[in-house]
């Protein structure tokens, strides 16, 4: 007898930048919470809740989130910055 397929939870990975300059990478947020009129804003709420849980366990206060960026967007942004820097260096010669 064939097995019933198990439902898969799809996640979107985010890089989180905090006001103190620190960063946390690859924070998982369920994909079904994202999109729609709010875009990625629900990710911030989920990550803030994750931070509260972590801080409760560690005894440290939660950090203030500066920005939340999807990992793939963050990689593209870094590549763009490197490319621009290389173009500036090549133009300065």
Topology at a glance:
Blueprint: E1 11-18, E2 23-30, H1 41-58, E3 65-70, H2 71-92
Antiparallel strand pairs: 1-2, 1-3
What does the model show?
The protein is α+β, with helices and mostly antiparallel strands and 93 residues long. The chain has one domain. The protein contains 2 helices and 3 strands. The protein has helices at residues 41-58, 71-92, and strands at 11-18, 23-30, 65-70. Strands 2-1-3 form a 3-stranded antiparallel beta sheet. It is extended, with a radius of gyration of 18 Å. The termini are far apart. The model has no long low-confidence stretch (mean pLDDT 88).
Q: What are the segments in which pLDDT stays under 50 over at least 5 consecutive residues?
A: none
Integer-rounded radius of gyration: 18 Å
Distance between the termini: 70 Å
Strand residue percentage: 15-25%
Helical residues, percent: 40-55%
Sheet with the most strands: spatial strand order: 2-1-3
What is the average of the pLDDT values? 88
Total strands: the figure is 3
Q: What general form does the structure show? A: extended
- Secondary-structure class: alpha+beta
Order of helices and strands: EEHEH
The biggest beta sheet is recorded as: 3 strands, antiparallel
Put simply, the count of helices is 2
How many domains? Answer: 1
């Amino acid at each position: 007898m064939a097995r019933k397929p198990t439902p898969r939870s799809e996640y979107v990975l985010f890089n989180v930048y905090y006001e103190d300059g620190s960063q946390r990478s690859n924070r998982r947020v369920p994909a079904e919470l994202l999109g729609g009129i709010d875009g990625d804003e629900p990710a911030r709420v989920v990550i803030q809740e994750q931070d509260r849980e972590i801080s409760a366990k560690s005894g440290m206060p939660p950090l203030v989130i500066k920005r939340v960026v999807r990992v793939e967007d963050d990689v593209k942004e870094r590549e763009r910055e490197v490319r621009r820097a290389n173009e500036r260096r090549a133009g300065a010669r």
